[in-house]
Amino acid sequence: MKYLALPVLAAALAAPAAGQERPSEAAGGVPAGLPDYSYAGYGFGTADIPPAPPTSIAVADHGAVPDDGLDDTKAVQRALEAARKVPGPVTLRFPSGRTQITEMLRIDRSDIVLEGTGSDAGGSELWFPRPLELVDTSPQWDELREYLVKEDKRQIEPENNIDYLFSEWSWSGGFLFTGPPDTRPVSYDGSKDVRDPVLTDGVAGRQFERTLTVADPGKLRTGQVIQLQWFATRGKDSAIIKSLYGDTELPIGSHHWTFPNRPTVSQSTRIVAISGKTVTLGDPLLHDVRPDQPAVVANWEHLTNVGIQNLAIRFPEGAAYGHHLEQGFNGIYMTGVFDGWVRNVVIDNADSGILTDNAASLTIADVTTTGDRLAHYAVHVGAVHNVLVRDLRVENPVVHPLTVNTRSTRSVFTHAQVLQGAILDQHSGSNHQNLFDDVTLRIAPKWTGGAWTWRLWEGGGAPYWKPGHGIGNTTWNARLVFDGGPAKGETLKVMSGLEGPGGTVVGISASGRPVEVDYRPTARILDSGRIPAIPSLYEYQLNRRTNRAD
User: Fold this and answer.
1) Count of CB atoms situated within 10 Å of the CB of 194
2) How far apart are CA 496 and CA 456, in angstroms?
3) Element at 244 (helix H, strand E)
4) What one-character-per-residue DSSP string does 504-546 give?
5) Residue 6 to residue 10: CA distance in whole angstroms
6) CA separation (Å) from 460 to 237, 399, 428, 550?
7) How many other β-carbons are positioned within 10 Å of the β-carbon of residue 495?
8) Residue span of the signal peptide, if any (predicted)?
9) What residues pair up with 90 in beta bridges, in sequence order?
10) Is residue 282 part of a domain?
């Protein structure tokens, strides 16, 4: 077993102070000091996703005719506009059969559900025959386009005669686009950053507790969704940087502190109670709030109760142009949403199935990605908090099938299956306290250097966003399956790239073969070669929190 010798992590593993709520204790086979990941998902993991609103707008009533081979875009847009005008919760209904759409559908209001009759054959199919490269040239993406040029973001593969700028659709945009009107999906140009309106200053709060003392509660109310924001006020010497990474010797990228109006860490949450200057939050604090590590309570523009369910999204067959050169066959882009969901959806032949940014408390459940085109992402979890991805099945080839990306916090992939070329992507940029849990990963071990090997963790990202992750990222019960490779009794060496400090790996199993885990930098590694006694850390923590079981 290997343990991380970091003062900050050592403090996190110590016994809690009197009255302090620790996320998990050293009991029942769960190491002490891990965050409580069970708050991920809609309603902080405990609320049921609501049924589709009974008030509905049918796209067929506005002229869409499925399966006729004609473009239904104008009819769907008319139906969407009618749904926008409904004063209360509303469902936009798609009929069985193929509905052809050649424009981006913008869902820019709360309390709306896009629903079909099912995701299987005979259900509702949304057919997108053209990529975003052709159909969306809106100025909304100009900042990203300029950023790619300024940073000279290029895919360079001399052996394939490739030397091109990245596509703006590599990690942004989708034909089903959710977000407040005129939203700025993600900040790229720091000079254009504007701080969100501050409601009050945080005064004191302890990491992993749910109470926060504020300077003035006058602008706060119970039920309000706010965003806690920690800034690197002292540059690379800021306390929040140390809270993120500990006393690591790894170089910390300058993007953590370069832009004064961009938070280093953000936590979107809901106020559940106010007593004097003490505010109770819906989920535990990501970090301490104290004079040398200040945080503000900011207003955050967002939508709520937005859902997409019971339908299939399909794109035409065709080869991929290359990694980072995607043309924009992207399914769902969910940004600026709190308490939203995607469920029972099939996405076929996408460049990226589902992309998330600047969102929180999302549940993405029972999603299957299929097709032969090499995709960039199956489900991308980026710049989000408390996102739960449950029962994802990745059948298509994907460069990053399971990914926690830049500025993702306390998000969870659980019960996922990746059927080919499986890796776990921890993408650089202050992503921390995330969990890969109870996942089945099909791999193709390689015989290199006299041993069977597989590089399971593969972190990307530019140097200005390194390291690969911060303290609290955990891999729990990753079951590796393969054809060929090591015989019974032969060891599989599972490796990583250069990831980040404060990682935990519990239960890497490989079809009964012995497993050696080589994780860099050194992580806390337990139960190599076997399935842990607790198969799902997420469910274990959720059950403990809700007193359903122990």
Assistant:
1) 9
2) 6
3) helix 239-245
4) EEEEEEBTTB-EEEEEES--EEESTTS--SSS-HHHHHHHHHH
5) 6
6) 25, 11, 6, 37
7) 16
8) 1-17
9) 112
10) yes
Residue 528 in domain: no
CA distance 424 to 47: 28
pLDDT in tens, 273-332: 999 999 999 999 999 999 999 999 999 999 999 999 999 999 999 989 899 999 999 999
What are residue 330's DSSP bridge partners? 352
Contacts of residue 419, Cβ cutoff 8 Å, sequence gap at least 6: 393, 394, 395, 442
Nearest to 353 by CA among 302, 389, 304: 389
Q: How many CB atoms lie within 10 A of CB 481?
A: 16
Give strand pairing partners of 513.
510
Tally of CB atoms within 10 A around 22: 21
How far, in Å, CA of 45 to CA of 37, rounded?
A: 9
Q: Report the C-alpha gap between 87 and 9 in whole angstroms.
A: 50
| Token code pair at residue 276 | 């004097």
- Based on the structure, what is the number of domains in the chain? 1
Contacts of 251 (CB under 8 A, 6+ apart): 463, 466, 467
Question: What single-letter DSSP state applies at residue 376?
Answer: E
Amino acid type, 58: A
Both tokens assigned to 404: 């926690």
Q: CB atoms < 10 A from the CB of 287, how many?
A: 23
Q: Which domain holds residue 262?
A: 190-299
> Whole-angstrom Cα distance, residue 85 to residue 502?
49
- Alpha helices per DSSP H over 130-215: 132-135, 142-150
Q: How confident is the model at residue 26 (pLDDT cuts 50, 70, 90)?
A: very low
2 falls within a domain: no
Q: Are 173 and 136 in contact (CB under 8 A)?
A: yes
Please, what sign has the CA dihedral across residues 538, 542, 548, 549? positive
Distance CA 153, CA 143 (A): 14
* Token digits of residue 14: 């110590």
DSSP annotation of 233: T
User: Which residues face 149 on adjacent strands?
Assistant: none
pLDDT of residue 360: 98
Q: Which pair of tokens denotes residue 440? A: 């089945």
User: For the residues of 35-59, what is the DSSP string, one character each?
Assistant: --GGG-SGGGGTSPPPPPPSSEEEG
In a domain, 242, yes or no: yes
Nearest Cα neighbor of 537 from 470, 449, 474, 458 is 474
Could you read off the pLDDT of 406-450 as tens digits, one per residue?
Answer: 999 999 999 999 999 999 999 999 999 999 999 999 999 999 999
410: number of Cβ within 10 Å: 27
Tell me the two tokens of residue 38: 């069970």
Confidence of residue 548 (pLDDT cuts 50, 70, 90): low
The whole-number average pLDDT for the span 493-505 is 96
Distance CA 353, CA 398 (A): 10
Distance CA 542, CA 520 (A): 30
